[in-house]
Amino acid sequence: xxxxxxxxxxxxxxxxxxxIFSRSVVLIIDHNEEGAFGLILNKRNSQMSxxxxxxxxxxxxxxxxxxxxxxKVFFIVKGPKVTEIYTDINNEFYLTEDxxxxxxxxxxxxxxxxxVKIFSGYSGWTAAQLEEEVQRKMWTVVDIYNLDYTLPNxxxxxxxxxxxxxxxxxxxxxxxxxxxxx
Length: 182
What we know:
Layout: E1 9-12, E2 25-32, E3 35-40, H1 46-52, E4 62-64, E5 68-78, E6 87-88, E7 93-96, H2 99-107, E8 116-126, H3 129-135, E9 139-142, H4 155-165, H5 168-173
Parallel strand pairs: 4-8
Antiparallel strand pairs: 1-2, 1-9, 2-3, 3-8, 5-7, 5-8, 6-7
């Protein structure tokens, strides 16, 4: 493997339709010879959001990180490290599965809930699978700087990035969700 997509954003092309990856924006957290690990930034999960409302006494959004291990919970956090178990995403954000310390930090005011994004499950690729999917143009890989991974993103994120890419991506951004209806 000559190149890693770690830290990059994957934008699904309209060819991927009808599943969780349709119109998704995926942050690649890790990518090496063994495979890749990422989280979908723009797919809310209302069922998991309702479950998390029991931990907190206020509404919170939980996102589908991907179709793998939906019983696992991940957090992208902006701000101070409140756990020793984390992976740096960049200078501003980190990833952790340490649910106990994150919930405690939010409840104790050490973390602002707006600086935490919760994910159920993750997106995973085996060795060379992601590279093959990119080559088959299922994904467009982009460098996006200054994207706040903890913002409450929805489908407007996918459309906005597609529009900013211009060209044929502009056409895709304005296509209906079900491309057979085009």
